[in-house]
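User: We ran a pulldown and think these components assemble together. Before we commit to crystallization trials, I'd like a predicted model of the whole complex to look at. Sequences follow.
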Amino acid sequence: AQSVSQHNHHVILSEAASLELGCNYSYGGTVNLFWYVQYPGQHLQLLLKYFSGDPLVKGIKGFEAEFIKSKFSFNLRKPSVQWSDTAEYFCAVKRGGGFKTIFGAGTRLFVKA
Amino acid sequence: DVKVTQSSRYLVKRTGEKVFLECVQDMDHENMFWYRQDPGLGLRLIYFSYDVKMKEKGDIPEGYSVSREKKERFSLILESASTNQTSMYLCASSLRGGLAGRDTQYFGPGTRLTVL
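Assistant: Here's a predicted model for the assembly, 229 residues in total across the polymer chains.
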């Protein structure tokens, strides 16, 4: 069965530190890849997505993610985090042509001011 | 902007009660989804619908049913609520799907259901 694994459940960083959140998936075919974010008290919302083309995708608020097909990975990065990035981040994978999106367990990021 | 609304933010019910969770989207999306969100488990798909009156089971459909009589509305029903259904329930909608396969999901604010 298709699965999504997020490497860290909790991450604590100081402001200005660099961030990398790992995400690996198990499906070997064509995939659409997403990172969603849920800020405290807010709706889950899209941060960025990859469908095809350049494997390095840029999203909102300075986030980017790199799709490495050979490693089945889609890691999220930000060079310098801010206190306002405190949130829960979910990696998600959808098989190309399918309806279902599989979500990872989520990573709670806390950024200390 | 896409707006997905859910009928309640917080709900408390007793074991054995029938529970209805309502979701409405205003962007004419074909696809609608119900998830439950539990700490450490992420989002798990309960049911989805890709058209009016069409529904498909997700990964954890047991104890739930759904109804989609109109395109904009997707209801989740707990026929006989149990304590293990205490959770956050999220509704989502998306445009297209299937072979297009490029749709982003738009989420509602969630309903936190407690079953006593």
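DSSP finds no helices and twelve strands in chain A. That may be worth checking against your pulldown data before setting up trials.

User: Thanks, that helps.
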